Amino acid sequence: MTQLLIKPLLALCLILCAGSALLFAKKSAASYGCFALAWILNLTVFALNCVHAQAPAFGNMFHVMVFLPLALPVFYLYGRRVGAADTLPTFAWVAALVFLGTLFMDTQADWRQMPALQSPWFVPHVFTYLVAYALLAVAAALSVRRMKQADMFAGFGFAFLTLGLVSGALWADEVWGYFWSWDIKEVWALVTWVIYLAYFHLKEKTRLSATGRVVLALGFLALLITFFAVNLLPKISSLHSYAS
Amino acid sequence: MLENWPRRAAIALAVVWLLLFFISPWEVPESAQTLPLGFKLFAAIGVLLALLSFYAAVLSLCCRRWTAALVHLALPLCVAGFALDEQQGRRLMMDIPVGEQMKDFVVEDFAVEYYPPFFWLCKRAEGELKPLERAAFKDGKVFFKANALTLTENDLFTQSGQPLKYLSLPGELVCALEPPRERFFAATFRIGEDVAVLGVNKPLKIGGWNFYLMSHGKYADGTVFIRVLVKQMPGTPLVKAGLWMLGLSACYWAFARVKRKEGAS
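Predict the joint structure of the above. Result:
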């Protein structure tokens, strides 16, 4: 029964996020309410997924796509706290895009974890990567008009990306006795990390200029390939195929 | 020009590194697997990693902030650990039959735990089964809601409790059992008087060697065996220290730079 509620709830989240962005343009205070309500509904869907899977719901692509927008309001509030400009529409549109993606996914996708995933490393590894993806998506969206804020979120995103990479290596050593196995997903994760590494080695002035925008866009493109292409393209054999 | 050299060098190295990833084959060829640790194929990348780590080490000396120095020092530490492992490390994959006495130990028992069975409602079409819907279980009944069909567990399980593989239903429908999926597997080792469990995600240390449970199988005569990776790697603590240093100092760096910018503005 609860499974039947999931798609309508996600559709409502999408409408609320899009509504929030549109209302913000009309300077209506209701935009904040819509964004908050979408977050509560999103949290409900995540909780339903956890109950259904009887484990933290990170077991398949649908589960992680539901978790991604949950992190966004937290970053939005942090951005406001450190005195950055109000960029609610950017956060709302990024969330809406992710909700739109979830509507085309199978809610019944398999969530039974293979033995290697039964590890205390599982949640920290997936969690840090998802937070990094959400932060870097926001950074990519903000880089169009607000490079300074994009730079701040990219910094946090890069830190979480590093944590994800490190936790993955430590976990792999515990399961297979190898820190690194040149799996296609691992290589693309490293490519993404190296591009963002290059971004932070640019001079501050260059980073905030058009060159910085281009490197951030390249990094986000590599991130999309790591996240989607490797998992969803057929005929790609990967140690991470269970995530598709 | 000179004052920009660290950044220029970093970008140049990153670009060369990226190019190398793109032209490297994804699979390690069989010929390379026979070489020590199978890492020789990536010797070129190893050289670049060494260069990058040397560069990072130099850069860490120039860093004005200790967090930045730590982030940069983590890379040479990891690479030093990997190099030590490659030179001094020993690693082998072995199949151990369950119940057979080895030199120092015997695998007494091996157990596999499975998830509860998944039943699918399928339709026969052109000699194949097309899955329509996965069953839901409740109160001893099996529901296929979308197809308005309910079966009892008695229909799908034998008297001994084994699930049926296929159950033909009217209208070219078939209720099929998905192959069982493993939840966990573990082997019990007896080393002298001591007993220890080796599981996936639960490596075991015996006589200075680390044991990792990789998979399992059956010989033609029906004897169960476990496939185990056995390794002795002196560089692993260095690699782990480098990885922890990298992860934690990167987090601190991200927060510290925001604080710094807040203070400056």
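The longest helix of chain A spans residues 147-176.
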